[in-house]
Design goal:
CATH topology of the largest domain: pyruvate-formate lyase- activating enzyme
Shape: globular
Strand content: 15-25%
CATH architecture of the largest domain: Alpha-Beta Horseshoe
CATH superfamily of the largest domain: tm_1862 like domain
Helix content: 25-40%
CATH class of the largest domain: Alpha Beta
Distance between the termini: 45 Å
Strand order of the largest sheet: 2-1-3-4-5-6
Largest sheet: 6 strands, parallel
Number of strands: 19
Length: 462
């Protein structure tokens, strides 16, 4: 009972959590396998941001329960945000689940699986599921282990990019969001430990670091002094920037409130900080922003966009938008559409508002009909497609710096990303994995660039 498969739903934080759990399990003697049909333990790391995400995970868990009829020793666990949100009540729908572990207890998973395995090896029936969704001081410091690609799936390509968790939890209390409930209060890791983790990754060959947090720009605001007008988050960026071997730095997910002058200026003075910003907008209506408890205005949001573009003319932007928030009128949506067009986003995550029980918005009057949400969603998606295609088309004929990450899904070509986070596909030599190379862009789709490496001999004669 030592083959484990982890299926992850949701955001990059969940991906990082799963990676850390996998590394801890591997250190305990478990094998991490890529095939869910060939495992003894299957862990679902879940998301609760939208009801659809929870229902998808519940449906998957319900289907997996059937395996127990043919495979009595099969272990099914639910981790993460849905586990935290629903806890033991999940057993009403999923009585055959063995393990439910919340967001502050990921590091306990190896021990719990050891206990389950020991009981079954001894022929002791499992009387009831293990449920642990309690808070734990210092839990933000446990997500620090990394699983190598070899351990994850048998691949030999080296890891060239990595997520580093720097902060967990959220104190913002947006009226639509369940994250404060599922992730707890804001907690930051010690800066020295984060820098040491990044340095270790650089020594292993990682070239790109993405710093992660629920509100990543709030990092250390209660723990470190603002020195010379520089916030702790920017101080951390400076220290990671100084690490030899790290060539690119990204971060997600920030809050507009965190884009003070020091962070905007950092894009002009820290060349390793990629010119790509994820800047959640949620709505372009001041009235709706107030109802959402978002502490900025549409005017301030546009000021941030303009300030960043003044520092880097070729800045790329992505955003989050919720359409159909309770009380959103056609006029409110028109204001969102206006900013969406003005900001000229390269990428966006557009969500139809979903009621999350336990949030203030769930109790608000004037819930928007589903057909109106869908129409507004499609309108923004159409604008996004036009914006994105226009941006990628303009790149045809240019030369872009690309970090070679590994083989594409076909296994025949290679893939990497530009500094603006555009996916590129091209032919190359495996020895170039981890290298920054110039790529001549020859054609483009809405989201992908295709090109040819321009260095002499780079395709196989290096």
């Amino acid at each position: 009972m030592n083959r484990v498969h982890i299926k992850t739903y949701g955001c990059q934080m969940n991906e990082r959590d799963s990676e850390a759990v996998a590394a801890m399990l591997r250190a305990r003697g478990y094998r991490i396998v890529a095939d869910e049909d060939n495992c003894d333990v299957l862990l679902l790391n879940t998301c609760s941001v939208r009801d659809a995400a929870e229902q998808k995970a519940i449906g998957k868990a319900g289907y997996l329960q059937q395996r127990k009829k043919k495979q009595p020793d099969f272990v099914l666990g639910i981790l993460g945000c849905m586990a935290q949100n629903r806890g033991a009540s999940l057993l009403d729908q999923l009585p055959d689940v063995d393990l439910i572990v919340g967001t502050q207890k990921f590091h306990q998973v190896p021990g719990y699986l050891d206990n389950l395995r020991a009981a079954r090896d001894a022929g002791v029936p499992i009387a009831e599921a293990i449920v642990d969704i309690g808070e734990e001081a210092g839990s933000q410091n446990t997500i620090k282990d990394h699983l190598t690609p070899e351990a994850a799936d048998g691949a030999v390509d080296r890891q060239v990019s990595a997520f580093v968790s720097i902060q967990q939890g959220c104190n913002m209390d947006c009226s639509f969001c369940i994250v404060p409930k599922t992730r707890g209060d804001e907690r930051s890791r010690p800066m020295d430990e984060i820098v040491a983790e990044c340095r270790t990754l650089a020594d292993r060959g990682v070239r790109e670091i993405t710093l992660l947090g629920q509100i990543v720009t709030s990092y250390g605001r209660r723990d470190y002094v603002h020195t010379g007008g520089v916030t702790p988050f920017v101080q951390l960026l400076e220290r990671v920037h100084a690490i030899e071997g790290i060539e690119r730095i990204r971060f997600t997910s920030p809050h507009p409130r965190g884009f003070k002058d020091d962070l905007v200026a950092a894009y002009g003075r820290l060349p390793k900080l990629c010119g790509y910003v994820h800047l959640p907008m949620q709505s372009g209506s001041n009235r709706i922003l107030r109802a959402m408890n978002r502490p900025y205005t549409r005017e301030r949001y546009l000021e941030i966009v303009q300030a960043l573009r003044a520092v880097r003319v070729d800045m790329y932007f992505s955003t989050d938008v919720i359409v159909g928030f309770p009380g959103e009128t056609e006029e409110d949506f028109a204001q969102t559409r206006e900013i969406f067009e003005t900001a000229n986003f390269d990428m966006a995550y557009i969500f139809k508002y979903s009621i999350r029980t336990g949030t203030p918005a769930a109790e608000m009057a004037e819930q928007v009909p589903e057909e109106a949400k869908e129409a507004r969603n499609q309108t923004l998606l159409g604008i996004l497609q036009q914006n994105s295609l226009r941006r990628t088309a303009a790149m045809v004929g240019t030369v872009e710096e690309v970090l070679v990450e590994g083989r594409d899904k076909s296994g025949e070509r290679f893939t990497g990303r530009t500094r603006g986070n555009r996916v590129c596909v091209f032919e190359a030599d495996p020895r170039l994995i981890g290298s920054l190379v110039p790529l001549q862009i020859e054609r483009a789709s809405v989201s992908t660039l295709y090109g040819q490496l321009v260095l002499a001999g780079v395709n196989g004669d290096v």
